[in-house]
Amino acid sequence: MSGGINILWASVDPCEVPLVVTENVPGPRSVQMHGRASEIMKGYSGQVKLFPVVFDQGHGCTLTDVDGNTYLDFSSGIYVATLGHCHPKVTAAVQEAAGRLMNCHDFTTPVKLELMEKMRQILPGDLSGIQLYDSGTTAVEAGLRVCRAATGKFEMLSCFGDFHGKSGHAVSLARMKKAVNGAGRTQGFYMMPRPNPYRPWFKKPDGSIDTDTYLDFYDEFLLEATTGQVAAIVLEPIQGWAGSIFPPDDFFPKLRRWCDERGILLFADEVLTGMGRTGSFLAMEHWDTLPDVVTLGKGFGNGFPVTAMIVREPYAESVEGISASTSYGGNPMACAAALASIKAIEEEGLLENAKRLEEYFTVRLAKMKEAHPIVGDVRCKGCLMGVELVKDRATKEPFDAAGTMVYRKAFAKGLAWIPAGHILRMSPPIVMDVDVAARCMDIIDEALGETEDELGW
């Protein structure tokens, strides 16, 4: 049961934060330290390449860099620190576990048992077969193996714009801009369009989205593109990498029926959306849809590397046949972090706070769209948002240059967040209060206005 909203530990004065104390940001120490590091470390994300700041510490909704600049965190790291940085309950739980027992392979420990039983309480339906891992990709790979074991079929369907990880089969579930190690998509993996209300492939004469036409296309795709051996369709409930894209409300209930009628499992990859990000433990709960397989990660341990692959009761025994255990998955520190995160969500009323923030963000985003002609679309569920920038609202031509400018300008003003080309992605910690949220939105508003002025809009 959730308690009253209690987020005082994470509170900050929006009149004092963000605080930029150097003449330029990134500051001189960040520039020097990142320069040294980049001589050794390769493969930085686009986020770091656009703004190579060096962070030193974090607390609640703030991050402080090595130059003493303090930023408001509007990304939760990268959808990870859902409960804010260094949540005292999570920190204490990890410290206690690290001083007691760090690893004993996949043997049962008291904290693992408590976590398993707590997860069974909070998960909907008969999602009760659980295995723990240390990365989202590993959990997704395990989920694919379970789908094949449970159905005896081998082909997989996924959707344009989804992202599911960076190893062999997980990579094959998403867009591949180039061959990986000289090879293309894994045989038997296929991608299809999914409903995007702002940019629909299929729509009705009045311009509204037509979910049924997508499902009709899926039937045709099964017949023409596959060998009829599809084990599962794998989807993000809300697309993160693609730009916080939300499906129409009838999509998942209809997809659930479509899967059931064809003997195909429904696999919801909730690594990004799960554990309270959208105002419920699972995003799929918003559409009253129970998937057959679920993966959790990112906010599951509030930054500690712990993920989960979960299956419904009818398929639970299939996990036994896929060599499911790992060296690090389910270690006592990981279990302690995940358990403490779940308890904090319940005890501090954080699902309710995410919903309260959604109410504020929804109104504020609508005003932002009204005020800025380069804003084509805005969307929000809980603490997951997207703002799509376009050169023309009629043609919806993406405005990548504006996206980069707004991102950098806001970051320089003290807002740490996520770039995605022409789409601005936002995922603040669910412990944020409305006054701080308003300050974050003020910064974005300012950055949008300055960008429009510079571009002559």
Task: Give a brief outline of the structure.
The chain has 457 residues and is α/β, with parallel strands linked by helices.
CATH fold title of the largest domain = Aspartate Aminotransferase, domain 2
Percent range of helical residues: 25-40%
Largest sheet strand order: 4-10-9-8-7-5-6
- Specify the CATH architecture of the largest domain: 3-Layer(aba) Sandwich
CATH level-four homologous superfamily name of the largest domain: Type I PLP-dependent aspartate aminotransferase-like (Major domain)
Specify the structural class. Answer: alpha/beta
Characteristic terms for this protein:
4-stranded mixed beta sheet; alpha/beta; 7-stranded mixed beta sheet; single chain; 36% helix; Aspartate Aminotransferase, domain 1; 457 residues; globular; Aspartate Aminotransferase, domain 2
Q: Describe it for me?
A:
By secondary structure, this protein is α/β, with parallel strands linked by helices. It has 2 domains: 9-79 and 349-454, Alpha-Beta Complex (Aspartate Aminotransferase, domain 1); 88-347, Type I PLP-dependent aspartate aminotransferase-like (Major domain) (Aspartate Aminotransferase, domain 2, 3-Layer(aba) Sandwich), CATH 3.40.640. The protein has 13 helices and 14 strands. It has a 7-stranded mixed beta sheet, sandwiched between helices. The protein has a 4-stranded mixed beta sheet with strand order 1-2-3-13. Helix 9 links the parallel strand 7 and strand 8. Helix 4 (88-98) runs antiparallel to helix 10, helix 5 packs parallel to helix 10 and helix 11 packs parallel to helix 13. The mean pLDDT is 94.
